Write the structure tokens for this entry.
Amino acid sequence: MDSSKNDLATLTAVEREKLLAEKPLMLVKLQEQLNIELKVQAGAETMLQVSETGQKGGTISREQVEEQLTATRRKIASLQKQIDMYRNLPDETGTSSQRSGPRPDEGDTFLRQRRSTMSLGGRRQARTASGQMYDITGSDICAMRGLDTQTLNEYLNHIEDAKVEVPLKLEAMSSLLRLIKDADEAGLTTHAAAITSSLRFCLTDSSKDLRACTYRVLRHLAISSAIMRVYLELNVDVFIMRSLARDQRYDAEREQALKLVRAFLDVREGALLLPQNLVRMLVAIAEQPDDKFRNVCLETLCELAVRNMPILALCGGTKVLFNALLDGPRDLTCLLVKTILYILDSDATRCYMRPSVELEMIISQFTDAYSRGPANEDRLTTCAKAVTLLFKSWTGIIYLCLDNKRAIRSIVESLRLPYEENRKILLEMFFEVFQIDVPKWYPDFVSARSRFANYYPMHEDLLREKTNHIPLYFERPNLVDHYLSVVLLVFIEVGLIEALVELLQHDNKYITTRVTILVGEILELCNRLLPTSYGTKVQSLPALFRIAADFADEPRRHQGTLALSYIDRLHKSKDRLLPHDPMNTRRLLARRFENNRRAEKSRQVESVKIKMGIQIDDVHFRTILGDLEKVLGSREYTKWNWDSIMELIQGPLLNPKRLEETVKNSRVLKRIMSFYRPLNNQFSAIKRSKGTAKYIRIGCELMKTLLSTPDGIRYLSENKLLPEIAECLGHLDPMHPTSQTEPLFSRDRMEKTLTGDYFTLLGIFTQSSEGIRLLEKFRIFSLLYRLTELRSRDDLVKAIITSLDYNRDTHARVLLSKVMTSGYKPVRLASTNHLRHVLQTGVADFWDWGIQLLVTQLYDPSIEVCEKAVAVLDLACNDRRNLESVVNMRPSLDHLGDAGNPLLLRFLATSVGFDYLQQLDYIEPEMDYWFQYGNKQYAVRLELSLARALSSKPGKPAAEIPSDVSRSADELGNQDKQDADGSVPPHFYGELTRTHEGCELLRQKGHFSVFTELIRKKSNGVVGDSEVLQLKSVLWAVGNIGSTASGLPFLLGEDIIKHIVAIAYDSPIITLKGTCYYVLGLISRTPQGMELLDDLGWDTVTSSPGELGGLCLPKDPARFLTMPKWSFKGSWPEYTVQPPIPPESFDATALEILKSVGNMSNHILANAASKALSRMRHECPKYFSSVDLYIEVFAMLSVYHFRLSARRFIHELFERVSFADDRFECLKRLEQMKIEGPDPFVADLATDRKLSHDDLYL
């Protein structure tokens, strides 16, 4: 310490002044270096202690550690000496010598010390605008974790000093920011006023970089609503408003200011503190199409609508959102629509929109006959997207049904307008609304007609659709289907079918093709999703039949006849190639019946083909072979007649006699088999493309035909096809390496050529016992076993397991078991996922062998594989035999945590599983968890799944997510693992009531009584925003209980169904109506539930065998599709604002300036007002540097609407206003604006015209 004082005594005045200027920053840097060296010293000492105890350490010797420790101690002493020197530097008051300024050539190098009456190390007090003294020293500063009192004082003094250069201030702010990030909330909140009052000086600085950095520091400081209140008390919003009004030269500053505004929305209750002046500034920027930050402001306004709708409506933000929805940007259409839906969902926010006015602006674009052109087409596309999103939400569709569905009728009627672009956009919109995919094989009318007339699946897309596995195990109702039933009902009532039938007479092939497909798909949906009464009415198509029977107009009649024919053939083709996605037990039974019918039909067709082959005489048969021999003589396989080859394989060759004759007397079969032999490089060298699927199909049919007869089996055993495949597979065996540069089954050839489809041909062999014996004969199974051990060829392993047939207990099942247990993670995951497809094909004895494989996967080291196994087991347990097989194995799921919960819920559905879970002490704790938290999480996951399922793009929820769900979605994290298909996942209470033991436990717990009491209370009362999610979760619990025959008596005993119906009819919260609609569908899954709902006015959809699918519709849709009427509050404030400064305080010139500023808000008077203001600024410049006048102008900008250009012009006029220490006090007058209750006359006047701003000064 003494040496440092001696060193200071030898310094000159210039050197001492230089050190004083560097002191704050150097202290921070030296302290950081000292902390690092102290850590190094501690580490070296620890290493020495380890070496003394004899423990094994690193490779560094003890001597090296001691040398490092000595050097570190020297550095610490040197740093400490420098720190002491800077701390002992006296300020001006403590220096005996006079301070001399820097030389002229050194003015930019040295900094002047801040004039202060306090020492840098003493107590520092800051005076705020309110006059209160804030002390940040003493014990209070200790609450700020990681902050040094002296360092903080020096930073703030350095920042406030007007003589310190901007680069050093920026560096000081960066250091201050690091201190703020390390501090805790309590300390920052306590001393936010002192820090903000110092930073406020920088907001008046001429440097835009310094102002931007200040906003950045303030944003990081704003971690609580209490700090936000401090900002408003110190009038930081005044400077934010000035910064946001600047032009593009100040984009960096505007960006940081805008981020600070958004910080209000990031803190709890911060949106309620956001002042009106900043919201109006955001609205002004959002109205400017070419502003760089327009999209950010629009997103901020959307978020503000959710958090503080009254302030948004007061500032005119609602109008801006609707204009943006019409004019773009299109990227924000989804966000804007979801915001509008949120506003419409609740009474508290719905009142800020005019019923049947604002939202109809979107629909009016379809009927606008005066706006034509490319720009209008883009606007129509945007509007169509918005309407689609409206129809994918309960709030949107119920709002559009107001006034006897006037808006929806307008959309349908616009199809009749003679504008082709409108029709094309509307047709594409209907495809999205009804969740219909446009087939790729219908590009125009001609190809559609040819497809219907001669349907032969030779294209790759049709082949894949043909070979898709038909899901068999589905039991859960699908909410998407339930929702589409309402959409269908609405559009049928407004005459959509009739309007589409009229379009069938159009000359445009694109339109007629789309209409034909759309009508056929809608008829199919009606048949599946609507009650019989509606189906009969729609399926009759009276308008189309009238057109087809109009013999007076032959072209018109011909068009109608073609349309009927195409629709009929479309259904037949889809029934053969595109099976419907099953959704429940009804579909399960129907699909099984359909599969049996198809198998029988296939056998009949095969029998007919054999008979036709037998009936062919020898001359005809030899002619066919002769023609094929001429064609097959060419090496160019593309010139072969593949249709004739397919007819030969599926016809005459099924006759053993013809097959024998072909083998002995013709080279046709030999030539075809030669094409498929891998070493001939024909089939194996074909590049994979869309048109090459026919070669795979014909090859599969050829193998099936040969394996069906003894002669064909003998021919295959003698042919070189299988030996060559075995030889090529052997080249991959690491035990028998080959000299070939690239094996036939290399990864590149597997991806780019048809080589990989040799495994498809081998899969055909595994479908019969004769084929399996052939594969065993050529030791192909042995090769496949060895190939599955190749860790570098996961593509081969996946190709093997996905091509084999598992209906027989042979090598295929052993191979799959080996891969699922011994392969590495990607292969284990792929094989487990493939077992799902095997399950859905209805493979034999799956409950015996497949369930065992899946249960084994539950113990896989990878949690991802375990979760996939749980998902497949969950699907398999829809079949009672699979569920009993899993329960009998009694798998342990403790190691899976929450991932095993879906499977444990399945165990509750059987008495054996219930007993097993009781032994594990699982049921009652899980029941308590569901009662407290699980019900809410279930409701959140289900609604998120439904939103994704209704989304037009997978993974992006296009439908609205209710506010209560969105607030809770983040809490779930990654718990939502279910597919976004809209199916109802198993519910604890629903599964619990499937057994007698579970029903008894539910009665003992009394949970159901609590649920029903809440429903009764809320069916006639008001539901608060915080209670919506709780009520939804209870409704889902009651609905799942009522979906089972043993659980429905609980609902009957409490007589609760009528209360659910009452909420569905009368609830002012639209998403609650939708939840009740789905819940009633669950209750309709039992015959007794269907009868009860029929008495309450709801129709249940039944399939042809009488099975219940969980779909119900109100008999009086108008009563359900309605929302309570509301009165429009408007955007006019419910109070009047008096000026912060009385008008009599200003002279005539100032009043004239205020009047001209007020006229700037009127676009008619704005030009003259701007000229008057420019003239007065030139003539009377002193008025435009007056703080009092600027405060009055700021008050006007805060409560009235001005465009961004007008705001920018006004702020530039008052750019010379300076806020010195004493002038910050003037800003307190903004807090004194007098607010009075509304005057009825003024309020009525305000609704008719806009009140002039200068009325306050008349």
Notes: The beta strands are 125-127, 133-135, 1098-1102, 1108-1114, 1136-1137, 1235-1236. The chain has a mean pLDDT of 76. The radius of gyration is 40 Å.
